[in-house]
Amino acid sequence: MPLEIETEIEFDLEDLKKDIETTRETDRWSDAPADVKELFHVLEWNIIEGEHFDTKEFIHEALEKECTARTMISGPMATGIAEVGRRFKMDEYFLPEVMMSAKCMHAALEVLKPLIVAEKTEDVGTVVVGTVQGDLHDIGKKIVAMMMEAAGFTVIDLGVTVTPDEFMEAINEHNPVIVGFSALLTTTMNMQWETLKRITAEGKREDVKVFVGGAPISQSWCDKIGADAYGVDALVSVEKAKACITNLANMKGGDPELHAALLAIDTEREEAKLAEAVAS
Amino acid sequence: MAAIIERVLSPQRKRTFDAMNLREPDRVPVALWGTVEGYQNLRRGLGMELNENPMNYRTGSTTWTADVSFELDLAEKLDLDFVRISVSPPGGSPGFRDIRKGEFPFALDINVPDDEHINVDEWGVIRKWTPHENGGYWEMVGYPLLHATSAPLEEGLEILKSFPWPDPRDEGCFHDSPIPGMDMRTYCKYVQEETPFALMGQAGRGGLFEQAKYMVGYAKIFSDFIESPEFLEELLIKLTDLEIEFNKAMIDVCGEYLDWIRMSPEDLASEKTSFLSLKMFQRQLMPHYHRAFTETKDYFLKKNPNGKIQFHSCGAIPTSFMEGLLKGETPEGSQCIDGFDPVQPKAARHSGPRSKKIMLGDRMFFYGGIDVQETLPWGSEEDVRKEVRQRIWELGKGGGYLLSSSHRLEHDVPVENTLAMIDEAHEYGVYPLPEQPPEGADVGDDLPELQR
Prior knowledge:
The complex is a heterodimer of chains A (280) and B (452).
Chain A: H1 13-26, H2 34-49, H3 55-64, H4 69-89, H5 95-119, E1 126-131, H6 139-150, E2 154-157, H7 164-174, E3 178-182, H8 190-201, E4 209-213, H9 219-225, E5 229-230, H10 234-245, H11 256-279
Parallel strand pairs in A: 1-2, 1-3, 3-4, 4-5
Helix pairs in contact in A: 1-2, 2-3, 2-4, 2-5, 3-5, 4-5, 6-10, 7-8
Chain B: H1 2-8, H2 11-20, E1 34-35, H3 36-45, E2 67-68, H4 72-77, E3 82-86, E4 118-120, E5 126-132, E6 135-142, H5 146-150, H6 153-162, H7 184-194, E7 198-202, H8 209-216, H9 218-227, H10 229-254, E8 260-262, H11 278-284, H12 286-303, E9 308-312, H13 319-326, E10 339-341, H14 353-360, E11 365-370, H15 375-378, H16 381-396, E12 401-405, H17 415-428, H18 447-451
Parallel strand pairs in B: 3-7, 7-8, 8-9, 9-10, 10-11, 11-12
Antiparallel strand pairs in B: 1-2, 4-5, 5-6
């Protein structure tokens, strides 16, 4: 006998339409053609609402309209999941809602992942990422890896509980531009420091730019251990990574000037945000 | 009549009962809770005899099999006020089945890797021994109902119906106790008649939401609230039936010797906030909790008219959740839960110790409160003493506070810190408590406002 249970989230089409209408007015995807823009709005809201059953259809439809996988990931999918993150932070969303959104992201990425690999035209550089030893958490790191890939990097994801030895091996083998350490726990964040010390001891510090990220990580932790950059979220990490292969390409890992230049990206972003807020 | 009862009560029991009944005792009652390794560490530090092999310990909770009942000689030596006892898993401790030897009664539809460190518990949850430097935990690696919850509803419900659930009335549950060779009933009787300690019992071996997490997996359970509510509802009904039955079986065996019952632990919150929204909790979980608590309490009160029920959730469980749980009543009109543990001090302040006391302290007692995440393992003795003073002041006014570590003592807690905790509680915890808050205490005048 099926039970009658009301669940909290009911997918309200009217609400969704209204939400789409609101974001449409912000003209978020101004450089996209009109019909694609519409799809982007729907995709973004599918992720926010965690309505994952027809996501794949939207993706295929957008692909037929010649949208690239990269555009979708760094566009509506990134803004959608960022909104989910905001709602979670504000106690508007709890784990069930976040899990539904994650499923939606996952469904979309399943379609897009092979395309990103195929889509990549030029190899801009290699990034090695991993969750440090003793830590099993990797959702955030996976998102960063995906976004880096979408930005054109070759990403070597070492997985979870990666030892300093394994990081060293990967550095020697792949010769990356950037090495990223992730950690979720206060008890494991120290391994970021230990791994960094190991890289320095092996004489590789100048060859790689070290990024740190994760829930307990902050800019002050980054400063303290002498990493080059802290990525507050995936978008910022990608922006800083891009800087490392363009205007900052000639700087060496561990250089205080590199550290300052990467930190300036955060300041610029904050100033831009402030200016936007003032303007509106 | 009352006077006679008062006279036969040991000071330990009297202060525990006073605290539980929200009267000021002579001083705050104190007890311990720990893993096998934490317990061994303590005995070693005190120069007491111990059994070196952790697998020789009768463990309380199968779910992690790291719990151990602290023995009476330790309670005596440290001048504790109450002790805990848990039923063993069906089939007896440690409750694992070696699947390679065909010891699990049904075929699992899960690929079990061939690894000697893998076992299956009584619920069919596959666990792997994951060691740390001084011991380890049985971490979950496989979930027996993961497929059922993803299957079409009818099929899923069919699996639920035919699933070989553990038998709460299995004799093995009550075979042994912390005293070798003594069964659980005899032990409980012994504690009541021959020792001065109050006694808390725990029968539940999994819980409702908690065991549901273990059955379908952490990743799946949360989306099930939205995607598979019908399946989840049926699963929770079944788990509630079992929780009640485990408790009734224990009450039948030794209910008259137990002073209070701790329900199966339920973790409903992270350190920051609850896992679920209040609305989802009220609709999809709370009715099951009410049924488990009221039926258990009703049954318990028939054996022990003064019996109490204690509920556990780690994390920052919001006051609104607790208010909801407190609304449950037994047929006789008694509140369905009386106490709450472990009052995790590292949880967000709006749901922390002082907040709990201010918002709920007139209706329930609190158990736990001394931080195991930082202070006990890494703090100095003075840090521990400072925290003990803060917590007693925050939670102890008017009684209602039973002091203990806020979770299991692990191997990494120095013996000196455990002793400092007990000593400071003995010293500072004497009533009447000082009016002035000790250094660093959360006075919490702004907390009711924060809750809104």
